[in-house]
Design brief:
It is built from ten helices and eight strands. By secondary structure, it is α/β, with parallel strands linked by helices. The chain folds into two domains: about 130 residues, 3-Layer(aba) Sandwich (Rossmann fold), CATH 3.40.50.1400; about 110 residues, Rossmann fold (3-Layer(aba) Sandwich). The strands form two sheets. The chain has a four-stranded parallel sheet with strand order 2-1-3-4, with helices on both faces. The longest helix is centred in the last third of the chain and has 16 residues. The radius of gyration is 19 Å and the shape is elongated.
Length: about 280
């Protein structure tokens, strides 16, 4: 079995890999530097499960097309990765998504995998990051830990998630409630494309006596959304919105996948379905 560490930008689509595969499925990112985060997740999976060969695929075809056009790198989409596993004679296939929630992108993976359910001796799909109460607790503790320097009573810590029109958007309100119930009243959760909006978060921040705001991603990778919609200089970025309200703003562009407890949690999801 191939246990050699593979560089982050390697598409991990080599053939001749043995009978056990762990397919790490991400939405993807078109930025080579940001893919280092996904590479770190994949490397941690390879270290945790040396009996499996780790492979990569992205579920967003627009991102895949952009990578191919800009860099000439071919990364498998979900269907291509499943076909490749089938052609390689994989008998035990474990799929571990890095998706935040059981939303539209995760459902696409589940639906696609179901078409190949008879192609392997066994096929199992791990849960997305935020699934159980324990998952929420681990992520909440991680958010607090990585921003512990700002527990000064004068700083609001705001996390920007992507947001979705699906019912799974409730994960953001659930995370907000958990943080508030634990006494972290200066932590606020919002989204880029759904609710709570940046304006909703600003209103919550204004209810306190804060002088500055720290902005961080609530996304696995810190890609274009974070660089533009959170930390960008355009008028409607979160940075500009909070600066316009008179706050000193600190932008920290570290994706969740850069944090060891998050990578360990994803590995725990993979381990759970392996045991099942």
């Amino acid at each position: 079995m191939n246990s050699q560490k593979i560089q982050a930008d390697n598409p991990r689509n080599q053939d001749g890999i043995g009978e056990q595969e762990l397919l790490v499925v991400s939405v993807g990112t078109a930025q080579a530097q940001t893919r280092l985060t996904l590479g770190a997740i994949e490397d941690s999976m390879a270290n945790a499960f040396p009996q499996f060969t780790v492979r990569r695929c992205f579920s967003n075809q627009t991102i895949l097309n952009r990578i191919k056009q800009r860099e000439g790198i071919s990364i498998d989409n979900v269907e291509e990765a499943l076909r490749r596993a089938q052609a390689n004679g994989v008998r035990k296939l474990v799929i571990q998504p890095t998706h935040m929630m059981d939303g539209l992108e995760y459902r696409k993976v589940v639906t696609e995998a179901a078409r190949y359910s008879d192609s392997f001796g066994s096929l199992a799909i791990g849960a997305p990051l935020l699934t159980s109460d324990k998952d929420f607790a681990v992520v909440a503790d991680t958010l607090v830990s990585c921003t512990s320097a700002y527990h000064d009573g004068k700083t609001a810590v705001c996390f920007m998630g992507h947001g979705t029109e699906a019912a799974s958007n409730e994960v953001y309100a659930r995370m907000q409630k958990l943080l508030s119930d634990r006494g972290w009243s200066h932590y606020f959760i919002g989204t880029m494309e759904a609710h709570p909006t940046a304006e909703d978060v600003l209103a919550m921040v204004k209810s306190g006596n804060y002088r500055r705001v720290v902005l961080r991603p609530l996304m696995i990778v810190s890609g274009g959304h974070i660089q533009n919609h959170m930390a960008g200089d355009q008028n409607h970025s979160w940075k500009r919105i909070f600066e316009g309200a008179g706050y000193a703003v600190i932008c920290q562009q570290q994706g969740l996948g850069d944090l060891a407890p998050i990578r360990e949690l994803l590995a725990a999801h993979a381990r759970a379905v392996m045991q099942e």
